[in-house]
Known about the structure:
By secondary structure, this protein is an alpha+beta fold. Helix content is 37%, strand content 19%. It has helices at residues 3-17, 28-48, 50-55, 71-81, 84-94, 128-134, 166-172, 226-229, 240-243, 250-261; strands spanning 19-22, 59-61, 99-107, 140-146, 150-155, 188-192, 197-201, 206-208, 215-222.
Amino acid sequence: xxxxxxxxxxxxxxxxxxxxxxxxxxxxxxxxxxxxxxxxxxxxxxxxxxxxxxxxxxxxxxxxxxxxxxxxxxxxxxxxxxxxxxxxxxxxxxxxxxxxxxxxxxxxxxxxxxxxxxxxxxxxxxxxxxxxxxxxxxxxxxxxxxxxxxxxxxxxxxxxxxxxxxxxxxxxxxxxxxxxxxxxxxxxxxxxxxxxxxxxxxxxxxxxxxxxxxxxxxxxxxxxxxxxxxxxxxxxxxxxxxxxxxxxxxxxxxxxxxxxxxxxx
Length: 265
């Protein structure tokens, strides 16, 4: 299969299913360059948020911000996010120019018996009716980079385009006596190996699977619209001097342009 055919297949599968799993996208050497930076962020974040981590946390965010990384680590992470390699993939999946939204880090819970949970990302800031409408709105995607072998994720295929069954709505919203950790039918489980990338829609119904040495860096890209970029922390964006040095600054530039247009920069 040619590279062009593989790229086309990635876009087509994402469009149809709401996810695409790209095995071995990053080499061991590439992972080894970025993982120590992520681990330093993780250690500093957990020290500063120890109670929250021990209580229930399974992820942190804003890795490219200034709070937990020194300037050299922060710059290296920004360069990684804006590399030609990752940006080329993002542009293929979006079939347009994406904007940078955020970074997140996913890890195992402190309590090994803590249960995972089904959700759409949209449920944390939208009503149920607004969630329905969002399925026809702008796109946001996670580009999950596995920094170690892990159980991965479980997803309901096509749910980025289709509204919930009564069962999935009851489970993920914990309605009518249901719990968000209950199993759902017709799901796909996607275990990840170090270096894999899993692209999935933020609107898809999904849940992370805990275990092994789970450590996944998510880079979130979205359509360059205020509706989604209103959640961006400007502290996570590069300065002008660094911006011009990046391999592909277009996602950061798209974000900055949108924020300026809406008076939030």
